[in-house]
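Rhodanese-related sulfurtransferase
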Amino acid sequence: MSFEEDGIVQIKEEEIQQLLKVGAKEPILIDVRELEEYSESHIPGVPLIPMNTIPSMVADLDRSSSYVFICRSGKRSQNVALYLKEQGITNVRNFAGGMLSWNGEVKQGLEWVVKHSGELYQDKTE
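Tokens:
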């Protein structure tokens, strides 16, 4: 089901759905869109690390973990994956099609935003 583009494995919605269904700890799903996009609609339980903050977060990412990056269409998340691969974080994947192709459950609001310093903002009002 997955395929490769520019050396980055591309995964589809069905694979993300399966990861969520089984509660997989890895790969770690990360949304890289802007705050406004994430607040409007995101996959429940997936944290936001805006693309422009990724360079300042590289040192905080566990190099032994695997990651899947998510954006609106799959282009920004592909660029994040390529960038991190260049930084030595090699187990990175991209959600091909991004949120435009997502038909699963969504949530509104700023549920889980990772700030520049690595601090987390989690909205626990459910």
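The chain is about 25% helix and 20% strand.
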